[in-house]
Fold this protein.
Amino acid sequence: MIQQIIHYSCHFLVPLGIAFFVSRKHWLSAYIILLLTMLVDLDHLLATPVYAACRCSIGFHILHSYPAIAVYIILLFFKPLRLVAIGLVWHIATDYIDCFLQTVYCR
């Protein structure tokens, strides 16, 4: 239960804080863009089973692969894509946190 609270707080509450930090005037638009970056999880639909509680998504799913993560980091350097890149990098960081927590909760 704690793992899920941390995971979903990182996916929904932290991006709200990022949106306020990045664009206080247009925070709602920024927040929506950050939430849309969670579409990166569509790659989970290609896995069998689609959901496995103790499976680390980093390195397993194609959009969570190390080459994809490298692209997300490179996108940080392109201003028009920076907010999307921030969302993608934060998503991956959240999933890394989840993978770490799985070492504790999935024994």
Remarks:
- The CA atoms of residues 72 and 89 lie 6 Å apart.
- The radius of gyration is 14 Å.
- The chain has one domain: 2-105.
